[in-house]
Design goal:
The protein is an all-beta fold. Among the domains are: 1-50, no CATH class; 88-116 and 131-142, no CATH class; 280-350, no CATH class; 403-483, Elongation Factor Tu (Ef-tu), domain 3. The chain is built from 2 helices and 27 strands. It has helices at residues 426-429, 479-483; strands spanning 9-10, 16-17, 25-26, 46-47, 90-93, 104-107, 116-118, 130-133, 142-145, 156-158, 185-187, 196-198, 217-224, 227-234, 239-241, 252-254, 264-266, 295-296, 325-326, 378-382, 391-395, 403-411, 417-421, 430-440, 446-453, 456-461, 467-476. The strands form 12 sheets. The protein has a 3-stranded antiparallel sheet with strand order 13-14-15, with no helix packed on it. A hairpin with a 2-residue loop joins β25 and β26 (456-461). The N and C termini lie far apart (140 Å).
Length: 544
């Protein structure tokens, strides 16, 4: 019996049915039954409990759905599952080799989708599109869009559930082209809270810079050669940008897992912790409002070691305390000058020419190996008569020679003779002796009867038992003094003639001052030794 149906048809039993035109298709009540060959042409709907179609041809298209209308939201095939664990479409390529596809979707429309899977259920584990393949080179789901224009998709997945996934991948996720994420991307986390939210170690290999100008501004992280890099840059304007580390956050650790000693905690281990260089600017610049700007500590070497080829090795400035604080069990601050400039300084203190304050302040004994040169010198002590309220100041005794002064008192005997014994080292240290005698308490005459010999000299008075105050000066003759005599008079270098160390003392403006660090005591012209002048001009004519 033949039936021509144009509406919904329910098929059951072993009827031989003809839909439209073509060879009849026999429907059989038994399973698997006998395979039938023919066509079914239906203009309405066919409702069946299950449909199984098979074709052994290598090029067969087992089920073909073709919606020929070029308008409307029509479907070549529509599959639906209402189960919370169901699959609307399940594709499986069971071949163990070859480039097979569990589901293959293709769209030729510029705005089309190769495969679209939609889950209408708002709960459960329903799957919009499920693809599975057992082939080593197969694809569980393969979406391919051949249009070269338009915002099209090879595969488009969408989920309306807040905790759902438009596309979910277990295992390795690979992409050979560009990847675009419209929302947050989570790696190792199911609820990403930022554009990129990674839970676990992130690893970067290779170098993709330089980027095109279209990349705009951003932060680049990568690996080039044998080192990694992190920098901020604007490729549109080709300008570097600032990179902030832990701006509002905690400490940053380099070489340590527990940064606790500052905003930036660097543990260098057995090498240099921080190495700062600059070709024309400042190598390292530190500022503190209320504490030490730079604090250096070493248990066995220098607390701070600053070096410069042309300027200051260490420069510290503070507006309320010390600019640089150095502390060590042996040397607190050591300055080494290795240049050849005549005006080089190993350590320099500059008080900006102020009459108050100090360019250098030392607590404790101070030792100078070499010549100490000064514009003036004095001692300052508590006034012995009013120590609570006053100071007492005395100037140093100045001399053009390396002069030593010795004095004392002695009383002549009944014959008017007194022997004065000097220290045992006196004769070895001094030469060119000068004597001065003053009689105390009476009118008498006193002379040096015998000059110093074997550290003894003799005083004679014209009366017995006369008290005499004596003073002897000597010029140092030890090896250091003999090699380092002061050049009492020297010419100023030509570039400083007409300028002054202390211009105000000569009624001149400060613009005519010689910077203290530029005063060359030996002059740029070799000083000539000569005897002390006895009169007339102190200097010979200025050389040309």
């Amino acid at each position: 019996m033949l039936f021509a149906l144009a509406a919904t048809t329910t098929v059951a039993g072993g009827l031989s049915m003809f839909f439209g035109q073509g060879t009849p298709v026999n429907l059989q009540p038994t399973t698997p039954g006998t395979q039938q060959v023919g066509n079914a042409n239906v203009s309405g709907r066919v409702i069946a409990g299950s449909i199984q179609a098979e074709n052994s041809s290598p090029t067969a298209q087992v089920i073909v759905g073709n919606a020929t209308s070029t308008t409307g939201a029509n479907f070549g095939g529509f599959f639906r599952s209402d189960s919370v664990l169901g699959r609307a479409l399940y594709g499986r390529a069971s071949a163990k080799s070859g480039t097979t596809s569990g589901v293959y979707g293709q769209s030729d429309s510029p705005a089309g989708r190769g495969v679209t899977g939609v889950v209408a259920a708002t709960s459960g584990n329903a799957t919009g599109v499920w693809g599975q393949t057992a082939s080593a080179g197969g694809r569980g789901v393969y979406g391919y869009n051949t249009s070269a224009t338009g915002v099209n998709y090879g595969v488009y997945g969408r989920s309306m559930s807040p905790a759902g996934f438009g596309v979910y991948a277990e295992g390795t996720l690979g992409a050979s082209g560009n990847g675009v994420i419209g929302g947050n991307l989570g790696v190792g986390v199911s609820n990403p809270q930022a554009r990129l939210h990674s839970n676990g170690t992130s690893w970067f290999t290779g170098d993709t810079t330089p980027l095109p100008p279209a990349a705009g501004g951003g932060v680049a992280v990568g690996f080039s050669g044998s080192q990694g890099y992190l920098f901020a840059f604007d490729y549109a304007s080709f300008t570097p940008k600032n990179l902030l580390l832990q701006g509002p956050g905690g400490n940053v650790g380099v070489g340590t897992l527990s940064p606790s000693s500052g905003r930036l905690h660097v543990d260098g281990g057995n090498t240099t912790a921080v190495y700062a260089t600059s070709t024309s600017g400042i190598g390292s610049y530190s500022v503190s409002g209320t504490n030490a700007a730079v604090y250096g500590y070493s248990s066995s070497d220098y607390g701070v070691d600053g070096r410069s080829n042309n300027s200051i090795g260490v420069y510290g400035q503070s507006y309320s305390s010390g600019g640089v604080l150095a502390q060590g069990p042996y040397i607190g601050v050591q300055g080494n000058s290795t240049g050849s400039d005549a005006n080089r300084q190993a350590v320099r203190g500059d008080n900006a020419g102020s009459a108050t304050g100090y360019a250098g302040l030392f607590y404790g004994n101070t030792w100078v190996v070499g010549t100490l040169t000064k514009s003036a010198g004095a001692f300052l002590i508590d006034h012995p008569l009013d120590p609570e309220n006053k100071y007492l100041t005395h100037s140093f005794v100045e001399s053009p020679d390396m002069k030593n002064i010795y004095d004392g008192t002695v009383v002549t005997d009944a014959q008017g003779v007194a022997m004065v014994e000097m220290p045992e080292w006196f004769d070895a240290l001094n030469k060119d002796f000068r004597y001065q005698l003053t009689v105390i308490g009476q009118f008498a005459q006193a002379i040096v009867a015998k000059e110093i010999e074997n550290n003894i000299f003799v005083i004679r008075t014209d009366k017995p038992n006369v008290k005499v105050s004596w003073q002897v000066t000597g010029i140092r003759k030890d090896p250091y003094a003999e090699k380092n005599r002061l050049e009492v008079e020297t010419y100023k270098p030509k570039e400083f003639r007409g300028k002054f160390i202390y211009p105000a003392g000569y009624g001149e403006p400060n613009s005519k001052g010689i910077p203290a660090n530029m005063v060359n005591l030996n002059g740029s012209i070799a000083a000539k030794k000569r005897p002390r002048p006895t009169g007339g001009s102190a200097l010979p004519p200025t050389p040309r």
